[in-house]
Amino acid sequence: MGERPPVDFRTEPSRYRHWKLGVEGRVATLWMDVKEDGGLVPGYELKLNSYDLGVDIELYDAVQRLRFEHPEVGAVILTSGKERVFCAGANIRMLGQSSHGWKVNFCKFTNETRNAIEEATAESRQTYLAVVNGACAGGGYELALATDSIIMADDGATAVSLPEVPLLGVLPGTGGLTRLVDKRRVRRDRADFFCTVEEGVKGQRAVEWGLVDELVPRSRLFEVARQRAVERAARTDRPAGARGVTLAPLHRAIEGDRIAYRHVTCAIDRRLGAAEITVAGPGTPPPADLAGIHALGAAFWPLALARELDDLILHLRTNEDEVGLWVFRTAGDPALTSAYDRLLLEYRADWLVREIRLYLRRTLKRLDVSSRSIFALVEPGSCFTGTLLELALAADRSYMLDGTRPGDDRPPAAIRLAELNFGAYPMVNGLSRLESRFLREGGRLEELRARVGEDLDAAAAHKAGLVTFAPDDIDWDDEVRLAIEERAAFSPDALTGLEASLRFGGPETLESKIFARLSAWQNWIFQRPNAVGEGGALRIYGTGQRSAFDRRRV
Amino acid sequence: MGERPPVDFRTEPSRYRHWKLGVEGRVATLWMDVKEDGGLVPGYELKLNSYDLGVDIELYDAVQRLRFEHPEVGAVILTSGKERVFCAGANIRMLGQSSHGWKVNFCKFTNETRNAIEEATAESRQTYLAVVNGACAGGGYELALATDSIIMADDGATAVSLPEVPLLGVLPGTGGLTRLVDKRRVRRDRADFFCTVEEGVKGQRAVEWGLVDELVPRSRLFEVARQRAVERAARTDRPAGARGVTLAPLHRAIEGDRIAYRHVTCAIDRRLGAAEITVAGPGTPPPADLAGIHALGAAFWPLALARELDDLILHLRTNEDEVGLWVFRTAGDPALTSAYDRLLLEYRADWLVREIRLYLRRTLKRLDVSSRSIFALVEPGSCFTGTLLELALAADRSYMLDGTRPGDDRPPAAIRLAELNFGAYPMVNGLSRLESRFLREGGRLEELRARVGEDLDAAAAHKAGLVTFAPDDIDWDDEVRLAIEERAAFSPDALTGLEASLRFGGPETLESKIFARLSAWQNWIFQRPNAVGEGGALRIYGTGQRSAFDRRRV
Question: Which label site among A272, A273, A543, B539 has the fewest CB atoms less than 10 Å from its CB?
């Protein structure tokens, strides 16, 4: 991927090329209208509302903005701006020409965006409805599956389909299989049949099998959809009269191997393949009240932090794939950081504060599912408290300096638990990071909860199980350096599998199943000669040839 | 794999080359003592108690026989017969020289055997204890993890380790990662560290981190182990004075493309890559009482069926990898079949009947996790009832002939639910196949339960959701033939991923996580150049070279 220009995830509605966003009262509409020659990289045409990463970046931005900039919107209609096609899914030629890493990273991002649509419905109370006004295939149907309700044109032609297996020799990899059986509870044998039929299923059978929710004559499609959306919007708890918060352009400076935002900086060590990421706590006291938070808007530290961290993760994942280790530090005043956390807790019922917490939650989840090793270093001057402590809890491993360094007159590092660590930021498995850490050790959580607000020095934090190691100044440099160098020497693939297996103990959810079972299988298939070798199904799609598969099952 | 002689899974203690089995009162001991030159295929030496499929086939047989032939045994000590090594895990040279398919199939079988050890502990009340009397690495530690309690020698040298990531660039693929965090609840950051340290962890830290249960001086190791085993055995519900049932050699005839057992036959169509498997119901009425079951022993139809089906699945998986579709039929008298099911239910508290049910359960689970498409065809003359109905419920898709064929004067096919379909044979996700089929449609299960014993014709079975399609005689041939031919034309890899994703809706368990998350990641890694390419870690192990990894994360 080194040769292509870096992908920028920052955009805004005025720059959209593929989506149109309209708001009418409590209902918004997102029209997908992909520009054929608007591909992110050369080599393919985005026909039939097929998408690539560029199209999905705009969708991600739109979903994000609807939450922050439109508090009044309680329902979102997702439909096509084209005549006879809803969406043909991910562009096949794009997949065919992409590297393995690009395909996997693309699928991860699209999965996260679809999960965000479900989160917006469930948690932000902005309910998404898909209005399928034409052919809806593969990733197109998977997009519809991410909404709360699928309304399909009953015109004898419009069908939903997942033709990946028969046409391309790969899986529907954006949550489709999992959502079929786990979300929509389509019977597994019907799902099996459905996934092998190129032309898909239409009309009454689609409703009966649970593939769509409602069938409406084409002439009345948008009238009925609007009605359904209005009904949903009426049930939201979002305020009709509030003013939104504009997500102003995010400032980012990339200079050589340094990436700097206002609160987050990153220095890349290419020899080690490591990124040193420092998150700065707030520099000023928080506003006095809720009005102050709204007045600050995107400048409010927790929101600014979420946006910067989110963008950095996406940037590193997509543009810096040789950087396999992310080392997190924090810097700042724990007391100030705690004061912001208290605001998030105190005003948690407010729509904006809720959105900020959800955005932090999504960003931390994105970190958890990133295929990068994560270390956290807790040193004097740091502020691993509450929300920022989640970074250390998300790490595969953490080191906390016991004591101080000669010549450094700052006090020893301390970490501090906050109420927010006990459920505000669940992982994809539905558990808080503390719960995931102390699986079924319920007693431990109770103990820790009693210590909220307490400063825990290295010995105490180590004893409490909150950090992995607590070396003193004499051992620190060697121990940390060795761990970092060692990590760089391991097989990156083995580390990816290791981390994906150890990070998510305990229960599984729809989301965790998508990132584990489904994505892991898809990644495997994306490596198989039957899909990507000479003559593989994904490679020869559209040439009129047929793949001669190696028929051995493994 | 076409060139090597077929693997035979049938063995017995007198033929073991790698294990010794001893029974003393209520406690059995299994000594692993692998013969270096006893590899299943040429090309490697089984040094340091490392294992290949041949070693594991014997372990599988031993675990099986202990359950049936030793009702008196309540605890099993699993240890090494060698001086300073417990087990070095799967043989690396064997892995390095094996095809992708062989590696994946090998891991699946070893996983199933370790799951059987856990099932024996939990359900058969034969508790396994590992006595780690020397180096215990990789698959060796994974074997120990499958037991209920790990007792380790405290000698300053003996350690447990999972060195796959640092040494081989692959995962510990036999459940190790999942069992670390989900079974033993080792803290995820400690697990991360542990899995990156070649030399592993020994002594007090191993206990403190939960990697082993008890540390005992070498001089007292077996004395203490024996004591622990006796304590466990005292708590079993297995009868001390009962007579075991000998698992007499299983008769199997392979002639060309036909495989015949007493109750199960299989005809392979190599053009279609399909195996037509016919399971015959019992030919005679069941014995009158429990004594009759015990007297019949291995000849009792349900036990004979389990053994034959189990062997056939293993044979096809290992020796017939180009046969991607298994088509199940049954033939027999539904009334007789039901009569046997009633016995299994009536005497379910008996140790032998319990073992038979558990064996059927394991065999059906093995079917579920097989990477083969499964169809069931329900036709006149069939007996898909109770236990045998599970075959149709395990199928990815089922077809039931509505009515009869001209010239066939048998009555139309019927299927019949039995009490056993409602929980006796849970899948790896912990749900019955009916529950998995009607996820969260609790009401449906209640309705079906009220119909136990009723003959359901094609229309009724289709309406009840128990079969996928119910074509009549006019459509049958075309519809079924097309489905079979179509399946053969799809990418086998895509089908494997599809089936693995659709078969297990609902909750996840330790077992399902091993077969999904962990195995899927391992399969992916087993395809990656960093592991298996020229210079890949698995290929060059032991040469003294170091892999130059492609450091890109995907």
Answer: A543
Query: Distance from B99 to chain A by nearest Cα, in Å?
Result: 10
Residue type, B262: R
Within the 132-151 window of chain B, which residues sit less than 8 Å (CB to CB) from chain A? none
Q: DSSP characters for B277-343? A: EEEE--SSPPPSSHHHHHHHGGGSHHHHHHHHHHHHHHHHHHH-TT--EEEEEEES-HHHHHHHHHH
The DSSP-derived string for A478-526 is: HHHHHHHHHHHHS-HHHHHHHHHHHTT-S---HHHHIIIIIHHHHHHHT
Tell me if chain A has a CB within 8 Å of the CB of B520. yes
Give the integer Cα–Cα distance in Å for B198 and B214: 22
In this structure, the dihedral spanned by the alpha carbons of residues A29, A33, A38 and A40, taken in order and rounded to 10 degrees, is 50
What does the block give as tokens for A155?
């015109």
Rounded Cα distance between B28 and B200, Å, is 29
Instruction: Give the residue among A142, A137, A45, A149 at the shortest CA–CA distance from A84.
Output: A137
CB A269 within 8 A of CB A276: yes
pLDDT at B1 over 50: no
Helix (H, G, I), strand (E, B) or coil at A327: strand
User: Per-residue pLDDT tens for A77-92?
Assistant: 999 999 999 999 999 9
Q: Is the ipTM of this complex over 0.90?
A: yes
Which tokens belong to A27?
């209902």
- CB nearest B537 (choices: A491, A537, A552): A491
Measured at the CA of B131, the angle between CA B126 and CA B137, to 5 degrees, comes to 115
Establish if A552 touches chain B: CB-CB under 8 angstroms.
yes
User: Tokens standing for B62?
Assistant: 């031993």
Closest CA to A121 of A153, A73, A86: A73
Q: B5, B12 in Cβ contact below 8 A?
A: no
Q: What is the DSSP string of B128-194?
A: EEEEE-SEEETHHHHHHHTSSEEEEE-SSS-EEE--IIIIISS--TTTHHHIIIIIS---HHHHHHH
How far is residue A117 CA from its own chain's centroid? 10
Q: A553–B440: do the CB atoms touch at under 8 Å?
A: no
DSSP 3-state assignment of A474?
helix
Nearest to B552 among A190, A322, A501 (CB): A322
Reported residue count of chain B is 554
Q: Which residues contact A128 (CB under 8 A, 6 or more apart)?
A: A75, A76, A78, A117, A118, A120, A121, A146, A147, A148
Cβ within 8 Å of residue A235, ≥6 positions away: A74, A125
Q: Is the pLDDT of residue B428 over 80?
A: yes
Indicate whether A54 pLDDT > 70. yes
Phi and psi at residue A531, to the nearest 5°? -100, -45
Say whether residue B4 is in contact with chain A using an 8 A CB cutoff: no
Q: Do residue B501 and residue A178 have CB atoms under 8 angstroms apart?
A: yes
Reading the block at residue B455, the tokens are 């003959």
The answer to whether the CB of B297 falls within 8 A of the CB of B246 is yes
Tell me which DSSP letter residue A126 carries. Answer: -
Helices (H) and strands (E) in chain A, counts: 22, 21
DSSP B36-80: TT--SSSS---GGGEE-HHHHHHHHHHHHHHHHH-TT--EEEEEE
Entry pTM: 0.96
Cβ within 8 Å, pair A493-B524: yes
Q: For residue B413, what is the DSSP state?
A: P
Beta bridge partners of B102: none
Q: Which one of B192, B433, B514, B546 makes the best mutation probe of the A interface by having the most chain A beta carbons within 10 Å?
A: B192
Does the beta carbon of B533 lie under 8 angstroms from any beta carbon of chain A?
Answer: no
Q: Is the dihedral of CA A138, A140, A146, A152 positive or negative?
A: negative
In chain B, the percentage of residues whose pLDDT exceeds 70 is: 99
Percent of chain B with pLDDT over 90: 93
